[in-house]
Amino acid sequence: MTSAPVSDASTPILVVREATRRFGLVTALDRASLTVPRGQFLTLLGPSGSGKTTLLRIIAGLEEPTEIAELRIAELDVRGIPANHRNVATVFQHYGLFPHMSVGQNIEYGLLVRKRPAAERRRRAMEALELVRLPDKYERRVHQLSGGERQRVALARALVTEPEILLLDEPLGALDERLRRDMQVELLRLQRALGMTFILVTHSQEEALTMSDRIVLLNRGRIVQDGAPRELFECPASRFVAEFMGAENVFQGKVIAGADGFVSLLVGETVLRGRALPGSRLTPGTEAFLAVRAEHVQLATVGADRAGENLLPCQARLNIYKGNYHDTELDTPIGVVVSRQWDDTQSRQGKFAVWQASHCVIGPTGPNSPAAQGPGVTMGGKA
Ligand SMILES: Nc1ncnc2c1ncn2[C@@H]1O[C@H](COP(=O)(O)OP(=O)(O)OP(=O)(O)O)[C@@H](O)[C@H]1O
Question: Which InterPro entries match (predicted)?
Answer without folding.
Answer: AAA+_ATPase, ABC_SmlMolc_Importer, ABC_transporter-like_ATP-bd, ABC_transporter-like_CS, Mo/tungstate-bd_C_term_dom, P-loop_NTPase
